[in-house]
Write a structure and sequence with these properties.
161 residues, alpha/beta, Spore Coat Polysaccharide Biosynthesis Protein SpsA, Chain A, 7-stranded mixed sheet, two-stranded antiparallel ribbon
């Protein structure tokens, strides 16, 4: 059985949204939550999804939870609007969709996050950290915490933001 994944992005400006959404075309569903942009953000987003919601900025946590409430898949991935999925990460998602949260690669770290009714079991992975390579002005940043790992893929049945 194939695993479906929703992806969401919260945004305010069009500057990087096209690259971000282009890198999410592998997702079964894309949700965009826009904080009342006054540029071409919505026009660009409409090329990738019809699931676009406009609401006043209420903080990262609130915007992300609003987006999460509109996702229909059990697994949800999220990016910031100035981020893109690397080819390696897209390959990971293609494998993940085929086999679920198994032994896939060193791109991920499996994390047992608090379960609403206790601690998640080994069979019940709730969060997956994704390797993030940080760049500045198009150049890879060399520092001891790069790459970093960010919780970006979650099992919406048992985890929340």
């Amino acid at each position: 059985m194939q695993t479906s994944i929703s992806a969401f992005v919260i945004t305010k400006r069009e500057k990087n949204i096209q690259n971000c959404l282009e890198s999410l075309k592998w997702a079964d569903e894309i949700i965009v939550v826009d904080a009342q942009s006054e540029d071409k953000t919505l026009e660009i987003a409409k090329k990738y999804t019809d699931k676009i919601f406009v609401r006043a900025w209420s903080g990262f946590s609130s915007q992300r939870n609003f987006a999460l409430s509109h996702c229909t898949s059990d697994w949800v991935f999220f990016l910031d609007a100035d981020e893109v999925c690397s080819p390696e990460l897209i390959s990971f998602f293609e494998k993940f969709k085929q086999s679920g949260p198994g032994q896939l690669s060193n791109l991920i770290h499996l994390c047992d996050a608090p379960h609403p009714k206790g601690v998640a079991t080994k069979k019940e992975v709730s969060l997956i950290e994704v390797k993030r390579l940080e760049h500045f002005r198009g150049k890879f940043i060399l520092w001891r915490k790069n790459p970093s790992y960010q919780w970006r893929l979650l099992n919406a049945k048992i985890a929340s933001l």
